[in-house]
């Protein structure tokens, strides 16, 4: 039973980590696009 709980917690942690990674990557792309718009407006 302890092994099952440990595996379940590990799986939940892994999914949370991967989701957070994708979210940060998406936010980085959004910031990059905004920076490009500001750069274009400055030209």
From TrEMBL:
Keywords: Cell membrane, Lipoprotein, Membrane, Palmitate, Signal. It holds the Pfam family Entericidin. One of its GO terms (biological process) is response to toxic substance. One of its GO terms (cellular component) is membrane. The keyword Membrane applies. It comes from the Bacteria. Belongs to the EcnA/EcnB lipoprotein family. This is Entericidin, EcnA/B family. It comes from Lysobacter soli.
